[in-house]
Write a structure and sequence with these properties.
With about 350 residues, this protein is α+β, with helices and mostly antiparallel strands. It has helices spanning about 5-20, 25-35, 40-45, 55-75, 80-90, 105-120, 135, 170-180, 220-235, 290-295, 310-320, 325-330, 330-335; strands at about 125, 130, 155-160, 160-165, 185-190, 205-215, 240-250, 250-260, 280-285, 305-310. It has 2 domains: about 5-80; about 105-335, Bira Bifunctional Protein, Domain 2 (BirA Bifunctional Protein, domain 2, 2-Layer Sandwich). The strands form 2 sheets. Strands 1-5-6-10-9-8-7 form a 7-stranded mixed β-sheet. Strands 2-4-3 form a 3-stranded antiparallel β-sheet. The chain starts with a helix and ends with a helix. It binds phenylalanine.
Length: about 350
């Protein structure tokens, strides 16, 4: 048979199979073409008589013919009926389970935070990973000479584009988009810093920002009560308290660092909290009046608070994960343990 004849034979056989409309005909065609004494196996047997230099092309064409015929037969359901129900469905075999994924711990912390703050009236706001320096720095009172703007700290993409170093720029976007208060949002998202990766650092991590601004007076006590509620709900720690330590952030005044009562020892002191009874969780403060100025709001008419914390940090503390890198390796054995 020439290659051309093989092609013709293939076309004819496929047409025959396509036209077959009952199981008996399909079975007959199966026997005719690919059965033990069928025409295609006969061609394969006859390969040895084909001149050596033509053999590869010939073999390839015959195999392609066989594959096409088998696919066409399978489509017509060949074999299933002839083989009978016993071979088709072996009820003694273990069933096939669909592989089920588990929620990643970082997704879980973000979802939990959205649910907890949702109960307090916060909605989820979003912003892009690529920011402009105004939203990431200037509007947040961070001047150009500030070290955090340095190329050794921030991934600059261009003179006017960078990978956001914090989720705080979403504060600016939210206020600009809202046009007027009140706003009450949390903003989870990826953040980027030029950190060398080790057990507790990653150049790409996640934060959740919170912002509440209103025309009625908002106080540090409001902030504290909201974070105390969050501490209790997130860490599942009934006796959880919140402690504020004075700190500095360019865009809040006053600024604080926020500690939660250690959820492991309930404040008595243990290895997890380095015997202090407290675990540092977040940065926070009252929105600096100059930030309101940057979004065109009158600082005499509005007030608010902001807070921000690391998602990895909460996940590591809550689930006892000793190395931040485990959160990015997607080792199913690790992820399933936390499911
Ligand atoms: N953006 C700050 C940081 O990354 C955290 C923060 C958010 C502090 C909101 C105060 C208010 O360090």
């Amino acid at each position: 048979m020439t290659l051309e004849e093989i092609e013709q034979g293939k076309a004819a056989s496929l047409a025959e199979i396509a036209a077959a409309d009952d199981a008996a005909t399909v079975e007959k065609l199966r026997v005719k073409y690919v059965g033990r004494n069928g025409s295609i196996p006969a061609l394969i047997k006859g390969m040895k008589d084909v001149p050596k230099d033509e053999r590869p092309a010939f073999g390839k064409a015959v195999q392609a013919w066989r594959a096409a015929v088998e696919a066409a037969l399978a489509e017509k359901g060949a074999g299933a009926k002839a083989a009978g129900p016993v071979a088709a469905v072996d009820a003694t075999l273990p069933g096939r389970w669909p592989a089920q994924g588990v929620e990643h711990p970082l997704s879980r912390v973000i979802a939990d935070a959205a649910r907890i703050f949702g109960k307090l009236g916060f909605t989820v706001a979003d912003g892009p990973d690529i920011e402009n320096p105004f939203n990431n720095f200037t509007a947040l009172n961070t001047p150009p000479h500030h070290p955090s703007q340095d190329r050794s700290d921030t991934f600059w993409l261009a003179a006017d584009a960078l990978l956001r170093t914090q989720t705080s720029p979403v504060q600016i976007r939210t206020m600009v988009a809202a046009k007027k208060p009140p706003v009450r949002v949390i903003c989870p998202g990826r953040t980027y810093r030029r950190d060398t990766t080790d057990a507790t650092h990653s150049a790409n991590f996640h934060q959740i920002e919170g912002l509440y601004v209103d025309t009625k007076p908002v106080s540090l006590a409001d902030l504290k009560s909201v974070l105390a509620y969050f501490a209790k709900e997130m860490m599942g720690n009934d006796g959880a308290g919140v402690r504020f330590r004075p700190h500095f952030f360019p865009f809040t005044e006053p600024s604080v660092e926020v500690d939660f009562t250690c959820h492991v020892c309930k404040g008595k002191g243990c290895n997890v909290c380095k015997q202090s009874g407290w675990i540092e969780i977040a940065g926070a403060g009252m929105v600096d009046p100059r930030v309101f100025g940057h979004v065109g709001w009158n600082p005499d008419e509005v007030s608010g608070y902001a807070f921000g914390f690391g998602v990895e940090r909460i996940a590591m503390i809550k689930y006892g994960i000793p190395d931040i890198r485990w959160l990015y390796e997607n080792d199913l054995r690790f992820l399933r343990q936390l499911a």
